[in-house]
Amino acid sequence: MTRRPYVIAIDGPAASGKSSTAQMVAEKLGFLHVDSGSLYRAATAAMLRVEADASRWTEQGVLAAARSVELRAARTSFYPALDGRAMEDEIRGGDVTRNVSRVAQMPRVREWVNDRVREAAESKDVVVDGRDMGTVVFPDADLKIFLVADSRERAARRLRQRGTPTSEKMLDDETIRINERDARDARQTVPAADAVIIDTTGLTQQEQVEQIVSLSKQRSG
Ligand code: CDP
Questions:
Q1: Which of 18, 39, 40, 109 to mutate to test the pocket of ligand 1 (most atoms within 8 A of CB)?
Q2: What pLDDT is recorded for position 43?
Q3: Can you tell me which atom of ligand 1 is nearest the CA of 38?
Q4: Nearest CA residue ID for atom 13, ligand 1
Q5: Is the minimum distance from the CB of 181 to ligand 1 under 6 angstroms?
Q6: Residue 91 has pLDDT above 60, yes or no
Q7: Is the Cβ atom of 100 under 6 angstroms away from ligand 1?
Q8: Rounded mean pLDDT of 111-117?
Q9: How far is CA 193 from CA 104, 141, 157, 174, in A?
Q10: Residue 15 to residues 11, 30, 70, 156, 159: CA-CA distances in angstroms?
């Protein structure tokens, strides 16, 4: 009998370091990384190309735009492509970030994302990250992690990630944006009852990656 693929689900609020942590854990274990947020972002970017005025978006319109997005496998991760092209810069831009939570409230868009993520995990061991991976998408995941961190610390990390000089004012503004997005995403950002909660406020990236890798080795060993 073939063994079913191993799934590690990493969830948590905005900018809690889920994606970068998931990518590093996947590389250490030889798994593939699937970033479910990148699909919500890709659907939003695809819709923005069709209609720039977000107040006119409908669920049906977003779903139609999302159909030209596919999730492709690279060496260590999956990435969304629109009409066959990678769209990394576009999906990380301010326009997408401002509008993505609205798209993520649309039930059929959530189904579309969940189907793509489950397909990716059909034949490969994966580390998936998002908000509801351990609750809705993979309730039977082998290991569930929920990352939390102070919102000002998350804002500081996001600014550092951008690599541009920052001021206190920029940090204040980014903290507000993150708190607003947390509030909009609150409904789907709930830890599974069996998730291990890791507060990363005082941890380095390396430390949090090591913790998750050793938890997964304990579980499978
Ligand atoms: O990296 P960051 O935490 O800023 O965001 P992300 O993981 O790229 O997710 C972008 C947006 O997609 C979130 O603000 C949520 O609105 C939505 N999302 C979701 O609803 N459920 C998921 N499993 C993943 C993302």
A1: 40
A2: 98
A3: 8
A4: 101
A5: yes
A6: yes
A7: yes
A8: 98
A9: 23, 12, 28, 30
A10: 11, 24, 24, 10, 10
